[in-house]
Each structure stands twice: as C-alpha cells, then as structure tokens.
Design a protein that fits this description.
334 residues; alpha/beta; nine-stranded mixed beta sheet
C-alpha cells in the first residue's frame, strides 16, 4: 500500500530557520516560492543573468539573486528549471556552493534518476513533486487547500531527509491534500511513460488520427475538430471528477455502448506492446540519452517537428473556431 502523509505528519517548524533557495521562476518555481513565503519561511529566487522572470519575481515581493549566490546562501535548494539544462546549471553554479548538511531538492527526478546530477555524499537529496501545474498549486493554496504531491528520498545523509521534505511539502500546501511516498525512479519513469503514451503523445496522435480519418472521408474539417478535439475536454473532466465509471454514467447509453464496442479496436494488443517498448526505453535510460543528445545537439528534429505540428490543418481550423468561443479564453502560440 502507498504511504500517504498529511498535515499532522509534517512539522514546518523543522525548517522555520532554514534559508530556502528556489532555482527558477517558471510554472512550478513561482508557486513554490510564493507558497513558501506565505508560510512564513525565508526564501530567495536564483535566476541566470538577464532572466525575463526577474522583474516578475521582484514584483511578487521576492528577493532575486544569481543561481550561485542563492545556492551559497541556502540550506535547502529546490531546483525547478527545465530538465535539459539542470545538469549544466548544477555543475557550474550549484555544486561549487554546496555545503555539508545542505538539502538538494527537485520537483522531478529526471536528472538524478539518469545520473546527469550526482550530489556529494555530504548533502541530502530529496524530491517534492506536486501533481498539478504550478498555477494550480498556487491557486489552490490561496483558496486554503492544496494539491497532492509525491515525496522521495534519494540520499539521506542527515537522517532527517524525509522529515525535512515533508516540512517543505507542508509549506507549499501539499500535506493538506496528501503526499504519497515514492522513489526517484518510480516518479521519473511513470511520469515519462504517462506523458509519452497517454497525456501528450498518445492523446495527440489519437486526436490527429481521428480528425484525419473524418476529413479524408469527406466530412467538414470544422465538424471533425469539434468531435475529435473540442469535446475531449468534456469527457476528461468527467473522468477527472469520478473516473471511467462516472464518465460512462454521464454520457448517453449509445456512447457507453460505443466505448465498449470500439475502444479495444483502436487500442489493441499492438498498442500495448508499443507501450511496453516505450516503458523499456524509459527504464533503460535510452529515451533520456536520446533527448539530451537531441537538445544539446541543437534540437534540429525537435524544432522542425514543432514547426510542422503547429501548421497542420487541425491547428489552423481550430484557431479559427476558437475565435467563436469567447468563453474559452483561447490561447494561441505565435
């Protein structure tokens, strides 16, 4: 059974006198820092020279210093910058400033799991990973609640790594909802698998395949867009609220029967075999190595694929249709 920690399992007083550095001020970084500040803790933001986030962080009432200075000052360092650059930033600006007894923290286990960051034995290494985008972490905290999070300990030099990580989780509001204990490997591997096979890769390809099937059969692209992309949110919201059972309870009997009749014709044994191969590549580190090589090699394939995806018919049709729906607060990428 999963071990879950709540408010009474965490003592924020453990880190009341510690200096905390949040490295990065993006989606997760801003939420962590502001929640920590509101919890009465001593926090500063570490950013690279010329960062566009500096003005925003300062406007939010936070002190901003260089990454190196933040690491040098801090007792606890939470790293929430993008995966591909964490290794270099760590080696150049964080590692030289680590002191025995420090806690090095992450909101995702990628770099530790695959050995791109190897911390010295004299520091604790832990993870607190909220299971929501940063803006939601902040919104829910302000409302007086919190989002669930994962906690993991990679290195417990002090013997207090878990207790300190839980205190940090309490400071950002996650013990209000529940903090599940895991490992760096489990968090990283399941996170990557979910992104690639379902949440991003799987859903994207399923939507595109459905749209193209209808358009190729002569149906209007606008109608295909509504059926294959727009209405997806309605179904996912039902799943989010009550699982597959609630979704099936809420849709029509015809839709439920279609679910049972045709779902397995789309997601076949071959699909599951492909998922197993994707998981194997994640577990072996093959995906991580390929991604780091692609990113640090200039990202030619990555950026070309991004450009091609942004100009496909599904996107151009959707851009026009979203203009009709003022309630959406539609977002467009230029």
């Amino acid at each position: 059974m999963t071990t879950i920690y709540y408010e009474n399992d965490a003592d924020i007083q453990r880190i009341k006198d510690k200096k905390i550095a949040v490295i990065g001020y993006g989606s997760q970084g801003h939420a962590h820092a502001l929640n920590i500040q509101d919890s009465g803790l001593d926090v500063r933001i570490g950013l690279h020279e010329g960062s566009r986030s500096k003005a925003k962080a300062e406007a939010d009432g936070l002190r901003v210093v260089s990454v190196a200075e933040a690491a040098q000052e801090a007792d606890m360092i939470m790293v929430v910058i993008p995966d591909p650059i964490q290794g270099n930033v760590y080696e150049e600006q964080i590692a030289p400033n680590l002191k025995p007894g420090n806690t090095l923290m992450f909101a995702h286990g990628f770099n530790v799991r695959y050995g791109f960051i190897i911390a010295p034995d004299a520091v604790d290494v832990s993870m607190v990973a909220p299971k929501a985008p940063g803006h939601r972490v902040r919104e829910v905290f302000i409302e007086g609640s919190g989002v669930p999070a994962l906690v993991a300990i990679h290195q417990d030099t002090s013997g207090q790594a878990l207790a300190n990580a839980l205190a940090y989780a309490k400071a950002i509001g996650s013990t209000r909802a529940g903090v599940l204990e895991t490992t760096f490997a489990e968090e990283t591997e399941t996170d990557l698998f979910g992104e690639q096979t379902i949440l991003c890769g799987g859903v994207s390809e399923l939507v595109k395949a459905g749209f193209e099937t209808l358009v190729d059969a002569g149906y209007q692209p606008e109608i295909a867009y509504f059926e294959c992309l727009h209405e997806l949110k309605l179904i996912v919201d039902l799943m989010y609220q009550g699982g597959l059972n609630y979704m099936r309870y809420s849709v029509s009997d015809t839709a439920e029967w279609g679910d049972y009749k045709s779902g397995q014709r789309v997601i076949t044994d071959e699909t599951k075999a492909a998922m197993k191969k994707i998981l194997a590549d994640i577990q072996s580190g093959a995906f991580a190595e390929e991604w780091m090589d692609e990113y640090h090699g200039g990202g030619k394939i990555y950026y070309e694929r991004r450009r091609n995806e942004q100009t496909q018919q599904l996107e151009t049709v959707g851009k026009e249709l979203r203009k009709m729906m003022t309630f959406l607060d539609a977002k467009e990428i230029s």
